[in-house]
Structure formats: C-alpha cells, structure tokens
Amino acid sequence: MKKTVGVIFGGQSGEHEVSLMSATSILRVIDREKFDVVHIGISKNGNWYLYNGEIEDIQKGNWEKNSIKAFLPPDSSYKGVVTLQNGVEKIHKLDVVFPVLHGPRGEDGSIQGLFELAGIPYVSCGVLSSAMCMDKVIAKKMLEYESLPIAEWIYYYDYELSKEEEMIVKDIETRFGYPCFVKPANLGSSVGITKAKNRAELINALKLAAKYDRKIIVEEFIDGREIEISVLGNDSPRASITGEIIPCHEFYDYTAKYFDNGQSKLLIPAPIPEEVEKTIQDFAIKAFKALGCEGMARVDFFYQESKKRVLINELNTIPGFTKISMYPKLWEASGLNYKDLITELINLAIERYEKSIR
Asked: What's the domain range around 265?
C-alpha cells in the first residue's frame, strides 16, 4: 500500500527561500507510485497551511494563495494535519513527514519535538541530535569531547558584545589575527557568515552575526580545500564518496550556494588521495554517531593539503536538496539516484519510529 508523506516546506528561519527550492526539487522526483504526497507550508510568520497548487509555485513563493489554514496537533490520536473550512474539520492522515526545513525552528529539534508528540515518523535526526548539530557551539564541544579534529574557535554572547566590544575584538585579534571567520551559532546555508580581514570588518561581522543569533562563533581562518560528504542510515550509517567545492566567491556563501548559476564548481569525486577520502569517510561516520544523528547529515570538512590535515567544519541534519545541492549529488555519484534516496530516507524514518514504539 502507498504511504502518505507530508512534505513540509517554508518555515520561519532566514533559510525560508532555500527550503522552497529544496522542497520543489523533492516534490518533482518523489516516487508517486509508492507515495501519496500532502503539501504542507509554513509561512515566514509561522502560519501552517495545506497547499493544493502547482509545485512550481512553491519555489516562486506564490504558494500561500492556493492554501487553506491548517495545523498539526500534538495529540497523537490525530496523526495528521487538520484543516477547518466552512465549519468542517478534516483530518489529513500522514504515515510519515519529510520536513524540508532549514535553520531554526525546522532543523533545530523544535519541530522534531512536535512530530514526536504527534506520534508521526519523520525524516532525519531526532530532537537532541538536531538541536546539537544546529547549535555549532554544542556541536563543537561534542566533537572535541570525542577527540575529533576541528579548527580553533571561540564564542561570545550578543550581550557581551554590546558591553565589551573593544575587549572582544582585541581578544579575537590576539587569538586568531586576520582573516578570521565570524558566524551565528544557530543558522545554516552560510547566512550571516563573514570572512573578516581587518578590525572594521570584524566589528561589522560580529554585529551581523548578532542579528541572527544570541551566540556568535569566531573561528581561525583555515587555508584549506572545502570537502563535503553525505552520510545516510540509522544504526549502521554509511558515507558517500567525497566532493569538493571551489566557490566563485571567497568562500561558499549563501549566494554562491544557491544563486551563482553554476559559477562555483562542484568536483565529484573530490580530487584527493584515496587515503584522505577514507579518513574523511571515517571521521564523518564517527561525527554522525557522536552527535546521535539518524537518517541523514552532510558533513563539511577542510583539507589542508600541505599539512595533510583534515578538520571537521560542521554537520547539517537537513542539508540542501536543490538541483545543485551536494547531498543528493554525492549519493547519485555513489550509485544511489535522487528518487531512490528520497525513498530510503522515508523508509529509514519509518524504521526508526517502529523501533521506538516497541
């Protein structure tokens, strides 16, 4: 029998538009012979809708006009989204949900907690691992605890910045010098990230990051190649081949990821020695397990060729799924096509749920 999948897109984070692109790509290729699909959109202000229009209008941002208000109740007796139209309540049952939501309130454990309460299987990581991977401070502490290699880093709170800006700037200059990277702790798609090359840029970078999150991370500049790898599975995760990003900008920022029209280069497989690829695959699986991940994650690395050193940058539990996104491209190059990847992710979600209710 067909399973009914609720594909959830949009959300309240700064990555709303990226989610629309990812969801559109998934909806175009999901196996309709195996799955009936319910389209669920979340507006930027947090309103939930059941969407009944064309798939193309999702990416264009025109989806709300063909939607009706809906909500997903935490009462597990419903197991679906509820609409109320003309005084008539209707329950749209869901066997599993695929949250194609990037960033806060979509990838940070919040909505995963709702799915747990609702008793509905969901794609990707659980509440705790989603929260840890989203918060780069916690993720880095866990990776350090597991003795996995990462770059030098430090973090500050926004209230510290407002009171002690000069001291913080001097501290960063002493620790890292220039250039250095500044980023919000809880965001993805390179939103709010700056490569600061001098004091003026550093101050502006700290203020920009503080607009997105209370915690601000500063990292040493790593003169290395950007390598990414995809991990898939629950109890026995496996890693794809590696890919290398050669960004059209100074680093792989938001514009380069989604709007550069192919100017950035994605090299698949990454042109690195076999032993380095094996090291990256090994570290990726160890990091995946260390942070309690299930389902999927993309693990980003730096490879310093001159030092033959590999460093973990971060894990993304709901990576981009657009037509140019690395996660599905790496699996396709590893022998798992986009359609079958989506099917496997849905099956992994159901498998994890069935184990949890024993």
From this structure: 133-148+223-356
* 281 & 352 share domain: yes
pTM of the entire predicted model: 0.91
Residue 91: how many other CB atoms lie within 10 Å: 13
Please enumerate in sequence order all residues whose Cβ is within 8 A of that of 312, keeping only pairs 6 or more positions apart, or say none. 143, 148, 149, 150, 283, 287, 299, 300, 301
Tokens of 217: 């991370």
pLDDT in tens, the chain (358 residues): 899 999 999 999 888 999 999 999 999 999 999 999 999 999 999 999 999 999 999 999 999 999 999 999 999 999 999 999 888 999 999 999 999 999 889 999 999 999 999 999 999 999 999 999 999 999 999 999 999 999 999 999 999 998 999 999 999 999 999 999 999 998 754 678 999 999 999 999 999 999 989 999 999 999 999 999 999 999 999 999 999 999 866 654 555 554 555 567 899 999 999 999 999 999 999 999 999 999 999 999 999 999 989 999 999 999 999 888 999 999 999 999 999 999 999 999 999 999 988 6
Domain boundary (170, 205, 220) is at: 220
297 by Cβ neighbours in 10 Å (0-12 / 13-18 / 19+) ranks as buried
Domains held by the chain: number = 3
- CA-derived radius of gyration, the chain: 20
243 and 116 in a single domain? The answer is no
At 319, is the secondary structure helix, strand, or coil? coil
